[in-house]
Design a protein that fits this description.
Length: 418
Amino acid sequence: MENSEHYAIVDISINDKHINIINNDSDNESNKKENKKNSALTTVIKLQRDRGERDYIGFATLPEQVHRKSVKRGFDFTLMVVGESGLGKSTLINSLFLGDLYRNRTIPDVHDRLEKTTTIEKKTMEIEERGVRLRLTIVDTPGFGDAINCEDSWRVCSAYVDDQFRQYFTDESGLNRRHMQDNRVHCCLYFVPPWAHSLRQVDVEMMRRLHRKVNIVVVIAKADSLTVMEVKKLKARILQDLEDYQIQVYQFPECDSDEDEEFKQQDRELKAAVPFAVVAADTVMEIGGRRVRGRQYPWGIVDVENPRHSDFTKLRTMLISTHMQDLKDVTQDVHYENFRAQCISQISQHALRERGKLKRDSMGNNNEVVFTDTDRLLLQKDEELQSHVEIRRMQDMLTQMQEKLKASDKKHDSIIDV
């Protein structure tokens, strides 16, 4: 055909309503066909709006965009383990993350053991699972609780947590914040020995120093040395001690109403298992044709992943599968924000004191200095603060003098005239 015209059928989909429009490729009919197409689109969209339906915009892909960006960047998680030597901390970490972080670990000699000081030992490894990369940092505290005076133990741990907060605050306040590295402690696994009938004094003091700085998860180590009733009683006593001493451990968030029933049941089981009584093992053995991680005893085999033998599976589920991001969110929104508020308050007070000092110096050198209402208020507050400090110092001196007088009176009363 000589004067044949070329047509193209365009299928337009609007809310699952298909419109077939014939476009003429000839120069004479192009404008007419374009006008017809626009008119058809306008008519269909108007009909859809009249029916109360909404058009698809495209912002529903935002979660996918965030997911791709997060996976590309990777994730960071820092876990601190605190407990006495011999409670199986290293074995539990290797069992949780299916690795061997302590492959090159050296056993300290006699001289190092005699010092009995708490040190900080960091180990980092990269884990990848289904395309998701995790930078895991384990902060171990060898030497904790080995000395007679354990004040150094909690001081070292608390100072390390504060140092990581301070470093993050410095990086956040800097100019180049694109490649910030998050080394803040997101969770602290505190190991309680199975032979303790409740929380010991060193446990109470340690957790009281850390519970407002880091998420504490209490773990009963080597639970296979206890019977089922003993584990139940020990859990009840630990929970009672935490309430009596007002120690705030990590609290599980409440489930949303739209969650499925299976997730709600899992959340109830995790909350009921606190504190977790765990058994860890690096040995893989075969039981009934199935390879499991466990410990073999003369009376049988303890399967660490069996819920009847240990809470290991529940701890791993909470720590890795369900609440890892919530642990990071609580660290950011609660613990770090408290530290950040304290730092800003200290900086503001220091700036006010320096400003008041400069104003007083300028008053001494130049009598014609003009003060604003804000300057006068700041000077007044600074003078009030100094006066309160002086009053407090005088009260402390009077208290010390009264104590000395009471001690001297008791000494004279103990002398009997014969």
